Amino acid sequence: MKITKHVYSTHIMEDQATFGAHHPGGTQIYFVGDPNDHMVLIDTGEPYRSWTRQILDYHGELGNPKISSILITHGHGDHIGGLDRLQEAMGCPVRCHPKLEPMLTQRLGVGTVIKLGSRERIISGGGVSLRALFTPGHEDDHVCYYLATDKVLFSGDNILGNSSSSVRNLKQYMASLNIMLGQRPHIICPGHGQVIERGIDRINWYIKHRLEREDQVLEALRNGSQTVADTVDMVYPRNLRKNLRSSASRNIQTHLDKLKEEGVVTETPTLYIPK
Fold first, then answer.
1. Backbone phi, psi, residue 125, to 5°
2. Residue 15's pLDDT is what?
3. Is the distance from CB of 157 to CB of 122 less than 8 angstroms?
4. Within 13 Å of residue 135, how many CA atoms lie on the same side as its CB?
5. Whether the predicted pLDDT of 56 surpasses 70
6. Which of 110, 116, 141, 152 is deepest in the core (most CB within 10 A)?
7. What single string gives the DSSP state of each residue in 25-62?
8. Is pLDDT above 60 for 36?
């Protein structure tokens, strides 16, 4: 699928009957540049051979352009699972966050993986370049890429097309959302789900959603909540499905960790207390 003049995607719809991770809206693998010149590949998906075959088949549909590098958004298995086979097929270097480089070098061999620099410019075909943006939060080694000529942001898992993102460090994540917003993207190409056409609006919604949830957590603490379980009960609907409760608890925990880091709440061995 052609998204803009320099951005192409193969959209992998996941089979719910098989094992492995399942993402609302499937997974997107991007080729960026000029098919008549050279391109870069962003992420490599799950390790399933059917996924690798789909990516290679789409590369063939584009005319088998030279791939000058494979850019990795972060080190989760659903983004680097097919890296071994695709790097061998493309014969190009792999670029990633410095924190991810040792693990990928051990896996692929010395000299194959090159660390990215913060805000480094990566050249692709057709006279375009992508800017590497270190954007931790979902994961410490997370990188977004911005294609200024097409006003496209490749958001990895920091912003998703069909759902909200899981977060490891909320304070870092909020700072990363503001970095992403500062690019003023018209289009967001997420790692999973549909391409987002009103990019600025979506980032603003993510920021607003997280700030509103933080206010709800603080209000729960002021009203007597002192544990994660108490806060889940006060913040989420009473009819919250049991299979979603663990996810809700993790979400509340990330908010409490951020508030503790900022000195807004104090943690005792068993309780959270607002200051």
1. -75, 160
2. 64
3. no
4. 28
5. yes
6. 152
7. T-EEEEEEE-TTSEEEEE----S-HHHHHHHHHHHHHT
8. yes
